[in-house]
Amino acid sequence: MTEKPSSEVVLTDTRFEDFDLSPSVLRGLEEAGFSQCTPIQAETLPLALAGRDVAGQARTGTGKTAAFLLAIFKKLLSEDSKGPGPNPRAIAIAPTRELAIQIHRDAELLGKHTGLRFLLAYGGVDYVKQRDEIADGVDVLIGTPGRLIDYLKQDIYNLKHIEVAVLDEADRMFDLGFITDIRFLFRRMSPVGQRQTLMFSATFPLKVTELAYEHMEEVQTVRIEEEQMTTDRVTQVVYYPANREKLPLLVSLLSDEKDDHTIVFVNTRHAADRVASVLKANGFNAAMLAGSVPQVKRQKLLKRFRDGDLPILVATDVAARGLHIPDVSHVFNYDLPQDAADYVHRIGRTARLGATGDAISFACEDYAFHLPEIEEFIDISLPVMQHDPSALPDLQSPPPRKKKPRPKRGGDGGRNRGRRRN
């Protein structure tokens, strides 16, 4: 569900009802609990609703998704729109499956009274179902680059009727190597000047700016500048454990924080599996979220975590961007990220829309050398917390994994494998 702004968040005096939005859209906003705009919404909506190309930058969790969805609704429900047809009139491109799913969820919530048809295209699940639904017609297509291109090359749909194109988390597109795919999609859309293009991101490095000028017309850039990269509502600290102390220290700290909603970030799938297994062996209800986890299982895990049934999620950076999970109380950087910007995105999972939270980082033997870069990036020296190695708990080891049976070889012991058969 789209996050309802907290009374503690800095909202503007601009109200959604101040804009020329259709009654169906205003009804969806009201039912979702939206009344006043966040700064990024207040700054971008006057431009976007007027049909201008907009590049918007604001810290994660500040309402960028609602801003571009309202612009899509405005355009597709206007008299200037070409009207429904078999091909999408708007497209929203996201770097990850989880973000695409979240955008779709928000679109259905805010736009449920508009009569528009919102569909998803992302890998890992429902290949034929997604393909057939898109072939039946769609107004707003939301997806990840790979699956969008797959269906496009099969002529399941075309992009010649696109009236609004959205690129969300543009900097992440570069990080994940999608920029060639993005250019492929843009070049098959209606020309610049005949479509509205909206680009949103938490950071706007030069490469993203260049992309904006390449595929947008008279782009209006909106930056919601923060005095600092991270919010004061997040209490940030760092510990310096030896590698062997990391798991006992994590268990000790988690034991002190009962009934909390925690994400533990690690850098590799192997580390995620190890940490989650040890936590479960020591009495914690934890699960692992990584790119190797099948998509259906990932969605179920995220739903359990979002609903509060799963208190601890151990995740790689697949979960660091774009996930609107309310009430995350603690973020642990079990491994310090190797990119300073990822630190900001990770701890942005907590203290969202006015709440408060804690970010605890471990500067261990393997990753401590990334800390100076992180502190320079956020312009803060993280307070150092002390721990007593002798007071750390002894941990229960996870049970050994059952080995999968190896496939039986043929009677020749596999000696003839690969030989030409008559």
Q: Widest sheet: strand order?
A: 3-4-2-5-6-1-7
Major beta sheet summary: 7 strands, parallel
* Low-confidence sequence ranges: 1-9, 413-422
* CATH fold name of the largest domain: Rossmann fold
Describe this structure in words.
By secondary structure, the protein is an alpha/beta fold. The chain has two domains: 208 residues, P-loop containing nucleotide triphosphate hydrolases (Rossmann fold); 158 residues, Rossmann fold (3-Layer(aba) Sandwich).
Q: What is the topology?
A:
Blueprint: H1 23-32, H2 39-49, E1 54-57, H3 64-76, E2 90-93, H4 97-110, E3 118-121, H5 127-135, E4 140-143, H6 145-153, E5 164-168, H7 170-175, H8 179-187, E6 196-201, H9 206-215, E7 220-223, E8 234-239, H10 246-256, E9 262-265, H11 269-281, E10 286-289, H12 295-307, E11 312-315, E12 330-333, H13 340-347, E13 357-362, H14 371-378
Parallel strand pairs: 1-6, 1-7, 2-4, 2-5, 3-4, 5-6, 8-13, 9-11, 9-12, 10-11, 12-13
Helix pairs in contact: 2-3, 3-4, 6-8, 13-14
Short characterization:
With 422 residues, this protein is α/β, with parallel strands linked by helices. The chain is built from 14 helices and 13 strands. It has two domains: 208 residues, 3-Layer(aba) Sandwich (Rossmann fold); 158 residues, Rossmann fold (3-Layer(aba) Sandwich).
